[in-house]
Design brief:
single chain; alpha+beta; Fructose-1,6-Bisphosphatase, Chain A, domain 1; D-Maltodextrin-Binding Protein, domain 2; 2 domains; 5-stranded mixed β-sheet; about 30% helix
Length: about 260
């Protein structure tokens, strides 16, 4: 008998496959972008994929939260809520940098339970749930066992680096690796492709729900700044920055941030 979590992961994988097929008609680096009210870029691909994901994932009793969909606050009364970003890292998508992804998170009773992140340009499919672990292209993966900051590989937001937010850490003992999409950064951490990531600027739930589920399923820890017990599916979707990696590494990062 197929379990509930298997059905959810199958649904996520199917939705990501459909979205991947749809996005394949667009060429990264050669797609026009418009500016949304807040100044963030949006492309035709964002809208097309958002519609595909909604059709593939949403059941009558589920809630829905997406960057590209007008928010329906009836989600606040739902136990199961899909939290998605049709393209996380749209700037990278527009510039042709292979650090963007399609992100699907499933939240149950406010807690990330399952996630899928697909980077078509890098041919990487990350899939996971708390009950079964995390997988990269079908192979079971875990977070890095790096327990100290010394020579750790820490993923940092390209935009945060450009804004100078990382200047206080330029002499830190770890290697700072620039990368786009926060969802993709979390996915890479979940698979042990990097030791950890730190997001200094606020994020929305759709940016991180799937990635947090993957990190937790892979045995890692995620600390949300000022609110580590935070539940998802809130009316206000904006949240403070976060840290992700192996539990001992997160402890060292937290101490460094508060030193």
């Amino acid at each position: 008998m197929t379990s509930g979590v298997d059905k959810d992961l199958d649904k996520i994988q199917t939705a990501l496959a459909l979205a991947g097929k749809a996005v394949s008609v667009f060429t990264p680096g050669k797609i026009a972008a418009e500016r949304k009210a807040g100044g963030d870029p949006v492309t035709e691909a964002d809208i097309v994929i958002d519609n595909i994901l909604k059709q593939a994932l949403l059941a009558p009793d589920d809630g829905w939260l997406s960057e590209e969909t007008v928010d329906d606050l009836s989600r606040l009364d739902k136990r199961r809520v899909w939290i998605v970003d049709s393209i996380d890292g749209t700037r990278e998508f527009v510039e042709g940098i292979p650090e963007w992804c399609i992100s699907i998170g499933l939240v149950v009773d406010g807690r990330p339970k399952a996630g899928g992140i697909y980077n078509p340009q890098a041919n990487q499919l990350f899939l996971g749930a708390l009950e079964v672990g995390t997988f990269l292209n079908g192979r079971n993966v875990r977070v890095s066992d790096k327990a100290s900051l010394e020579k750790a590989k820490i993923l940092a937001s390209r935009s945060e680096l450009r804004k100078g937010l990382w200047k206080p850490f330029e002499t830190a003992p770890f290697e700072i690796i620039p990368m786009g999409s926060v969802a993709y950064k979390l996915a890479c951490v979940s698979a042990g492709l990097a030791d950890g990531t730190i997001s200094l600027a606020p994020k929305n739930e759709w940016d991180v729900a799937a990635g947090i589920a993957l990190v937790l399923a892979a045995g890692g820890q995620v600390d949300i700044k000022d609110d580590s017990g935070r539940l998802f599916n809130r009316r206000d979707t904006l949240m403070a920055g976060l840290t992700a990696g192996a539990k001992p590494l997160c402890v060292h990062i937290r101490k460094m941030m508060h030193a």
